[in-house]
Amino acid sequence: MKLAYITILFAGIAISISSCKQAERKTEISVQDTIPVKLMPINVGSGDSGIEATGVFTTDDETVLSFKNGGVISKITVKEGDAVRKGQLLASVLSSEVDAKAGQAKLAVEKARRDFERASKLYRDSVATLEQMQNAKTALDVAQQDLKSVSFNQQYSNIYSPVSGYVLAKMANEGQVVGPGTPILQVNGASNANWKLKVGVGDQQWTQIKVGDPAKISTDAMPSDTLDAVVSKKSEGLDPQTGTFTIFLELKEKPSYKLASGIFGKSIIMSAGTKVGNQWRIPFSALLDGNGREGYVFITQDGKTAKKQKIKVAKIENDDVLVEAGLEQAQSIIISGSPYLLDGSAIVVKK
């Protein structure tokens, strides 16, 4: 009787342990079946859509020029709007003081050289010590370095244009006393036609835009003309003055009309996930099982369940895919984690 009771007891314990293990295994499977993914919102609706941004035209080589050494401005040879050539003299400061210092430095070098030659001769005659000759040599080296420093400062008593372009601003006048680094002139290389539109966007828009995205630009100066551009650069930090992130749109072709620095421009940036006419732009990494012009992507409507969606591909551009059908009712597309998904898979959105 006791043996039968013990057998039944062990059987009950085994069943209990087995049930616990099965429950744990089910929990593990449930957790493992929830796939972490990243989403990208999809713009829905009719008509053209994109990220709208406004800004001003500028060039990469806008430069503020100043004197290395302070002094009295003796002449400024240009005014705002003037065309300039690379290497052209633009401004000078009175060089009397720096010229005098250069003269003193030259005399100091000559004296130090004579002292060294005299000390060397005396050392050879065993009259001067080795230390005295070495000290004379050190004094000569110091004097020569001082002359180089003064000559460098003397060279930068003039301002020369670093580019061929135009004078954007004149910030000082002849006879004015300026300190080192005080802005005198601002120039750019507009003659090279390397124009960019500098726009500001919010943080959510910044995350959607990537280098290489196409854009359209219009200006009030020529409202009938649209300029093709491409995102050439993104700032990696917030501009504290504007509270926005800076995006640079580089023109693909030289405009048919003349631009000027500071002209206002409006842009529409076609980032991934935006609708371009009757097409959507999505990352190539989101495309699965492509066959000709057909393919599949995973979308989600609630952020919890993945749905496999058939799409029609219009074109592939670099790392993007233009989709012409299949995303009409989509809210978000899954761009990371797709290879691990099945239709109806549970998902969790990674931040």
TrEMBL record:
Q: Which Pfam families match?
A: BSH_CzcB, RND-MFP_C
Q: Where is the Multidrug resistance protein MdtA-like C-terminal permuted SH3 domain?
A: 282-337
List, alphabetically, the GO terms of the cellular component aspect: efflux pump complex
Q: Which GO terms describe its molecular function?
A: efflux transmembrane transporter activity
Where does the CzcB-like barrel-sandwich hybrid domain start and stop, copy by copy?
A: 69-187
Note the superkingdom of the native organism: Bacteria
> Which SUPFAM superfamilies does this entry report, sorted A to Z?
HlyD-like secretion proteins
Q: Which family does it belong to?
A: Belongs to the membrane fusion protein (MFP) (TC 8.A.1) family.
Q: What NCBIfam families does the record point to?
A: RND_mfp
Q: What is this protein called?
A: Multidrug resistance protein MdtE
- What is the scientific name of the source organism? Sphingobacterium mizutaii
